[in-house]
Amino acid sequence: MVVHRYGRPHGRGSGAFAVTAVLVGSLVGAGAVTGCAAPEDPKPTGDPALVVRNAAEVLTRAGTSKATTSMEMAAGGTRVTIRGEGGYDFRRRTGRLQVVLPKDAAGTSEHRPITELLTPGALYMKNRGAGVPADKWVRVDTTTLDDGNLVTGGATDPAAAAELLRGVREVAYLGEVDLAGVKVSHYRGVTDIARAARFASPQLRGALAAAAKGFAEDTVPFDAYFDGEGRLRKVRHQFSFSNRGRTVAVASTTLLYGFGIPVEVTLPDRRDIYAGKIKA
After folding, report:
1. Is residue 36 part of a domain?
2. Furthest CA-CA distance within the chain
């Protein structure tokens, strides 16, 4: 196992923000629970840290892909899982996801899927609920969110997930594994949000800079998987922060596949954006 370390992880003062406040609302408080191309040789040919740091640039060259997301939150004995599916354009930094919330604690209440449009600096949501008209969109400025929309939207922006790897401080190559029929290289390490923000692309820099200020800890453990072309196929980040006196652990996983598919994102007209008060 090859391990590379870059600098020393450092902590920040205590911080607090509402976990997935835009989507989940009171689910956590209520106790909600949840139940191919031919593979190429993925063996790394250079510095493991360089492979990881280059994730965002390689995806930009790849252009587009399908994406599935999973966000697991745990606070005390409560566990919530939010899932999403859609496509992403890494050149334009835009994407469209259908995000599904879990049932309530009794398992009887269904939640309508929420459509999310991901763009540089903004998140648009439809079927937001909680007092928002069904035909309206909610727009959130991600540069003002305490987490930079790494967890608030219930799905980490795929480009942000890759850009976050630019801040890698420690990384180990763990060998090859099979991922949906594709051989991939597995790397495990720790990245630093503030460091990533400094090296991020201009479109994502503002959101990551906000996250660097909002999280109690800058360092984020990760597992990343790359195919033989150096494309990020899967990444799992583990976030931890304090929310209303409780420690909330969030594991965000992004899967990328179907590279080159058409991905179209049409932003809503201004008149279709809800301007009223949003309930928690």
Report:
1. no
2. 55
